[in-house]
Amino acid sequence: MFIIPGFLIALVTFPGVIVHELAHQFFCRLQGVAIFKTCYFRIGNPAGYVTHEIPKSAHQAVLIGLGPFFINTIIGALIALPAALPVIRFGSGDFLDCFLIWLGVSISMHAIPSIGDAKSMEQAVSSNEIHILLKIITIPIALLIRLVAVGRFFWLDLFYAAGVVMALPSVLVHLFT
Amino acid sequence: MTGDFKLLETQQQGKSQTCAVCQGAPQPGYKVPLCQGCRTKLSRKPIPVLIKGAGLLVAVALTVALTRIPGSMLGAIAFERGHKYEMQSNYKEASAEYQKAVDAFPNSTLCVARFGIVEYRLGDFFRAAETLRKLAGKKADAALISEVNSVIAEIEGGSR
After folding, report:
1. Nearest-angstrom CA–CA distance, B35 and B44
2. In the 8-state DSSP scheme, what is residue A153?
3. Residue B65 is nearest to which of A37, A82, A173, comparing CB atoms?
4. Which candidate, A63, A68, A62, A73, places its Cα nearest to that of A141?
5. Confidence at A1, pLDDT banded by 50, 70, 90
6. Range of A24's domain?
7. Percent of chain A with pLDDT over 70
């Protein structure tokens, strides 16, 4: 398998790291969860992090953990959409289109939750204070997120970004044709 | 930063009777003993100016992208419709749709080539030749090049 050091990937896709951490921070703020420390970008592993208290409820933990997935996917898709069609489908496009594709891919790539996100969500949803029914719903979600996070090692984040940037515009065009 | 670590330690130690920051009454249900005011203040941790700037750039890029989505989508949809009409040998409709696609993507070899080919099929040899001339020196896949070259050869053969 082709292995590129994580810090190089993070360096090339740094806007995605920043948006990911800002999304965590946004959902902490929305849920009133105390934040202790934030790092929006650094050369290291992890490339960014938001250290916050353990949320009071499972839904808060899921929202904070999964928030960046939705925010990064939506922003990445919208930024890349108008550029992907001329560049990928029609082989034309200018510098701005290429810039938008890079930005869209960078942001979409960091939509996938990190191992740290998966761990903190597992910690929150497996707490004894959470009702058993809620656990039945949230633990599989947390495990799925852990599986997806592990998939980053196998370029799942890049495949996901490619899907968001390339497949989504084609699907939309075919829907409206 | 020391304060942050003290709070983290408090989270691991368990329950406390006072807020870890101001010694006020802590909110129930949380592992870190913080009063409502301190928790709200900590949840609203300020964002550094540099990160705000980066966020603003992303917001500008998003705005630019949003303004370009309608043109790009309409152009791509017009191309697909044009292709569908062309397959049905409805060249008049195909030409109208391809014209919209060319307006949206004037540098696209594929759009210009299909438009020129359809103009030829409509019998408008002069406009077809004019359109296809724009492709001189451009790269495309072998099948498209061959199709364009055969159309050009037929136009030239017809005009002799």
Report:
1. 14
2. G
3. A82
4. A62
5. low
6. 6-176
7. 97
Radius of gyration of chain A measured on its C-alpha atoms: 17
Based on DSSP, count helices (H) and strands (E) in chain B, helices before strands: 7, 0
Residue B11 has which token pair? 């989270």
Chain A residues with beta carbon closer than 8 angstroms to that of B77: 173, 176-177
- Domains belonging to chain B, first-starting first, are 2-43 (no CATH), 71-159 (1.25.40.10)
Tell me if A40 and B69 make a contact (CB, 8 A cut-off). Answer: no
Low-confidence ranges of chain B (pLDDT < 50): 1-3, 5, 160
Token digits of residue B119: 């103009």
From the CB of residue B142, how many other CB atoms can be counted at a distance below 10 Å? Answer: 7
Contact of A137 with A61, CB cutoff 8 Å? no
Of the listed ranges A150-154, A157-161, B92-96, B99-103, the one predicted with least confidence = A150-154
Contact A90, B100 (CB under 8 A): no
Q: Tell me if A19 and B58 make a contact (CB, 8 A cut-off).
A: yes
Q: What is the ipTM metric for this complex? A: 0.88
Kindly identify which residue of chain A lies nearest to residue B78, measuring between CA atoms.
A177
Q: What are phi and psi of A151, to 5 degrees?
A: -60, -15
Q: How many domains does chain A have?
A: 1
Give the pairing of strands A35-39 and A49-52.
antiparallel
Residue A104 pLDDT > 90, yes or no? yes
Question: Mutation test of the interface with chain B: which of A92, A94, A96, choosing the one with the most B Cβ atoms within 10 A?
Answer: A92
> Quick check: is A1 in a domain?
no
Residue A92 lies in a domain: yes
